[in-house]
Amino acid sequence: MSLSAAKSQPGSARMDKIKVSARNIVKRFGATIAAADISLDIRDGEFLTLLGESGCGKTTLMRIIAGLEAVDSGAILIDGRDVTALSPRERNLGMVFQQYSLFPHMSVAENIAYGLRVKHKGEAEISKTVDEMLELVRLPDLRERRPAQLSGGQQQRIALARALATRPSLLMLDEPLGALDLKLRRQLQAELKRIHRESGTTFLFVTHDQDEALFLSDRVAVMRAGQIEQLDDPTRIYCNPANRFVADFVGDVTLLDCEYDAMRGGIALEGGGFAPMTLDVDRRCITLVVRPENVRLAPAGGGEGLACKVEDVAYQAGTTLCTVRLPSGAVLKSRGLGAPSPDFVLGGEALAHLDDCRVAFIREGPA
Ligand SMILES: Nc1ncnc2c1ncn2[C@@H]1O[C@H](COP(=O)(O)OP(=O)(O)OP(=O)(O)O)[C@@H](O)[C@H]1O
Ligand SMILES: [Mg+2]
User: Fold this and answer.
1) Distance 211 CA to ligand 2 centre (A)
2) CB-based contacts of 332, cutoff 8 Å, min separation 6
3) Atom 3 in ligand 1: which residue has the minimum CA distance?
4) 45 alpha carbon to ligand 2 midpoint, in Å?
5) E strands of 52-166, at which residues?
6) Which ligand 1 atom sits nearest the alpha carbon of residue 226?
7) Residue 53 Cα distances to 131, 207, 222, 297, angstroms
8) pLDDT, mean of residues 11-16
9) Is this model's pTM higher than 0.90 or not?
10) Is the pLDDT of residue 127 over 70?
11) Whose CA is nearest to atom 18 of ligand 1?
C-alpha cells in the first residue's frame, strides 16, 4: 500500500462503490439469534462502525464477513463476488482485535512482514512495505523491538500495521482500543482516523463506545439484538435518531412528548408550559429530541421560557451541566460553556429555552 493511496471522501466516486455486502444474514446459536436477517452495504473506502451493547451481535457479524463463522442463511459479497462459501484466507480481509495479538517471539518488523511471507512476497517488497507501514503508524524506530518491549498503544499500532501490510480489501477492527486507558484511547482514535484516511482502506470497526463511534466513522450502524436499528452518518444518528432506542443509546437525551401548535408557533407541554419554536411538521402530537446543547437556562422571573427547578449543577472540564425538572416531571439537561452561573442553584427556579431541537418521531394522534 502506498501512503498516497486513493483517499475516499463521502460522495467520492469510490464511496459509490460497494466493497462488502451482507445480504439477509441469519445466524442462531441455539435459542440466541445473533443475526436476525441483517443486510448491510459497506462502501469502498469508508469507515463504518457497528455500535451496540454487549451481546447484540457485533463480533458475530464481523466473523461472518471474515468467514470465521458460517451463516444459517444469507450471503456475503466482496467486490460484487459471492464469497459465502470461501475460507477466510480466500477473502483477503484483515483483522485487529481488542487483545494485542502480535507474535511474542518475533520482532516488530517480522510481525508486520508475517502476512506478506505467507503470501510468498519477495524480500525487497517485504522490506519496503514494512518501512511504509512503520511510517504509516509513526513508529519507524521500533523495527527490531519485541512486542513485550512495547506499550499497549504501540502494540495496537503495530497490530494495525501488520493487518494493513497485506493490503486487505477490508480491515475489521473489533474493539481495538478497548484495553487502553482513556487518554491513550483518545490519542489512538485520532491516529486511527488519520491511518484510515492515509491508507485508503475500507474499515469496519466495532465498539460499544458511542463517542468513539461518532468521532471516527463515516457511517454508524446502531445494533440491537441481532438487528440494525439505524445506519446513518454520525450527525443524523445523533440529531435524527430513527427511534427511541437509538435516541436513548447515543448521547444524553430527553424525549419530550408534546403538542405542536402551528398557530401559536410553539410546543405545548403536558403539565403546562409553552416553548416558542417553528417546526416543519404537519401533526400535533410529536416527540422532540432534546440534547443538553439544545437547552438554554435563564434566570427565573424574566419573560418567556419553561418554568423549571434546578436539581443538579455539575462542572465538567470547561462546561457546566445543569439538570432541571419541568412541572410535568420531565427532566432536561442543559450544557453551557464555562463555570456554573450563580443564577442557577440547587433547588432554585429557572426558565428553560429550547433551541434547535429535532423532531424525531411523529407520534400517532390527531393531525
Ligand atoms: N460460539 C457461540 N456459541 C453460542 N453463543 C454465541 C457464540 N458466539 C456468540 N454467541 C452469542 O451470540 C450473541 C452475540 O454475540 P457477539 O459476540 O456477536 O456479541 P457482541 O455484540 O460482539 O458483544 P460484546 O460487545 O460483548 O463483544 C450473544 O448472545 C452471544 O452469547
Ligand atoms: Mg464482541
Assistant:
1) 17
2) 254, 256, 290, 295, 308, 323, 324, 325, 326, 352
3) 29
4) 23
5) 73-78, 81-82, 93-96
6) 14
7) 38, 9, 9, 33
8) 71
9) no
10) yes
11) 57
The Cα–Cα gap between 26 and 115 comes to 31
| Ligand 1 pocket, residue 57 CB under 6 Å | yes
Arithmetic mean of pLDDT, 328-348: 93
Q: Which of the ligands is closest to the CA of residue 97?
A: 2
Residue located nearest, by CA, to atom 24 of ligand 1:
54
Domains in the chain: ranges and CATH? 14-92+168-248 (3.40.50.300), 252-362 (2.40.50.140)
CA of 206 to the centre of ligand 2 (A): 8
Closest CA to 332 of 310, 302, 305: 310
Which numbered ligand comes closest to the C-alpha of 34?
1
- Band of residue 365 on the pLDDT scale cut at 50, 70, 90: low
Nearest atom in ligand 1 to the alpha carbon of residue 69 is 1
